[in-house]
Design brief:
One of its GO terms (molecular function) is arachidonate epoxygenase activity. The chain has 280 residues and is mostly helical. It contains eleven helices and two strands.
Length: 280
């Protein structure tokens, strides 16, 4: 056998041994899993754009609980009512943390957490404050019923304007639900044709579509690398900045008209909380 052939076999055996060693070390005490590849993890074993369906198919082989590597990140996948109830309800506190959204890795200042995503004591306090405050304004209670009825009347008026012709109700239903949230957070509702309202909804919908695209999935799997790769996924962070500008403008307006004795919405309560803590 020629020297080049021996070298190729030795190289192949060496690489194979390294892959096996890497796979075993990545396993640790994690549940069973398909063998991951370095850097890629298990992404070649699934359809990235059909991730949920692909994970369900893997579950047929590895059971209701297994490990799946998104790139170099190990993730534990749970499926089935029993396991999900045990994790998210019976042990809700232990499973309450959420991973940092990969879109924030595109920020030069990093990410400090939010109500939806985050971990740690700071995030717990923020989430607890948000839940208590929103409940005080009637979220999930009969106190918000009047607002819901009022918005339903606006929705019905919009439906009447279709004059019985076929139409897609998605936009109108989204407007109605979004206005309830705007009332809780901003203290006001918007007309369905309001330019600011349409811009707000457009940015949110655009980000959902981008995050569900192939580019968005790649950003989720390889966040540190995709931060430097040009593509439509970069628009996600740009949209977040525009959303932040919208909210920031509402906050400044609330600061000018804030009445400590009569908080009107979530923003007022948050500003009062900051004042009590001495936060500028």
């Amino acid at each position: 056998m020629e020297a080049s052939g021996v070298l190729s076999i030795a190289l192949a055996l060496g690489v194979g041994g390294l892959l096996l060693l890497w796979g075993r070390r990545r396993g640790g005490n994690l549940p069973p899993r398909p063998t991951p590849l370095p850097f890629l993890g298990n992404v070649l074993q699934v359809e990235v754009t059909q991730l949920i369906a692909s994970l369900r198919k893997l579950g047929e082989t590895y059971g209701e609980i297994f490990t799946f590597h998104l790139g170099s990140r190990p993730c534990v996948v749970l499926s089935g009512y029993r396991l999900l109830k045990e994790a998210l309800i019976d042990h809700a506190e232990e499973f309450s943390g959420r991973d940092t959204p990969p879109t924030t890795t595109m920020s030069p200042r990093g990410f400090s957490g939010s109500i939806v995503y985050g971990n740690g004591e700071r995030w717990r306090q923020l989430r607890r404050f948000a839940i208590v405050t929103l409940k005080s304004f009637g979220m999930g209670k009969r106190g918000a019923e009047e607002r819901v009825r009022e918005e339903a009347q606006h929705l019905i008026q919009q439906l009447y304007q279709t004059h019985g012709t076929p139409f897609d109700p998605t936009f109108l239903l989204s407007c109605a639900g979004s206005n309830i949230i705007c009332w809780l957070v901003f203290g006001e509702r918007f007309e369905y044709g309001d330019e600011r309202f349409l811009t707000l909804m457009g940015l949110i919908n655009a980000n959902w579509k981008l995050m569900s695209s192939t580019w968005g999935q790649l950003l989720f799997i390889f966040p540190k690398i995709m931060r430097f790769v040009p593509g439509p996924h970069r628009q996600i962070y740009a949209n977040y900045l525009r959303l932040a500008e919208f909210v920031g403008e509402r906050v400044r307006r609330h600061q000018q008209t804030l009445d400590p004795q009569n908080p009107r919405d979530f923003i007022d309560c948050f500003l009062l909380k900051m004042q009590r803590r001495g936060t500028p």
